[in-house]
Write a structure and sequence with these properties.
54% of the residues lie in helices and 0% in strands. With 280 residues, the protein is mainly α. Helix 6 runs parallel beside helix 9, helix 8 packs across helix 9 and helix 9 runs parallel beside helix 11. The longest helix has 21 residues. About 4% of the residues have low confidence.
Length: 280
Amino acid sequence: MLQKKLRKLCEKTYLYRLSLIGKEDLTLNNLFPDPWPPQVTLDINQLRTLLNHQQDAFWDIPYFASFEWIRDLKTSQDLSIRSHIRDIILFWIYSNQRFFSLSWSRLPWRPDIVGLRIWNTLALFDFYGTSGPENFKQTVIKSVTQQYKQLTRSWNDFDDPLIQFKAIKGIIGFLCSTKRISYQSVDYWQEQLMHAIEKQILADGGHKSRNPRILLFFLRDLIDIRGILTKHNIDAQEISKIINQVAPVVRLFRHGDGRLAQFNGFKLDKRIVKVIPAAR
């Protein structure tokens, strides 16, 4: 607790960013593929217009701050789409990671948002980044590395196990994308992940919130984590057990047309990911 309070005080000084500078061991050649299809149709021009006119409001929306929007541009027919995505990512970096920026309390730096942003930045890099210039790639490496370092300090700032779970997902994604994977570190964070899971998944496989949408995206995150661990020959049996426990409940919540039941705070939207086949 004392360490957390000291960090919070240090975060208010511009010198705090110096502690995030260090060895950048991330490689963009050891990435994990993103298996999920786009769920909505985005217009990149409208996206840029919204960003230019409402920058603060734009990044205070979890969908944008977590870089989930990149996935929804994967099937765009616009040949310049990748360049536009890179421009927006650079804009985010220069706007939110400025040396003198004191924005740690804003939504873009909430641990779960940081974790998802790290994951999406890396998992979708093959789509938007491989065709980019070398200086863009180095900027991404530096940015993600600093976000990771901050996340290892702030991941449990909130008691909410769902926030911790998504934060740890990003940490594991980063660790599995380094030049030399520290299996000891991955084991430690996998242990923390299981603690976060135990605090929110009930004996019947449902989520403690009883919100179908939360459970659905929780399942997607589990499948992602299992996938990257399996790729690197890291034991993921415990995660597979949780997937087998959760997947039947998600199926139970589905109507015949594929939509989810609506209750306990769930509101119908078009961004329902087809995760059930991948859970098998």
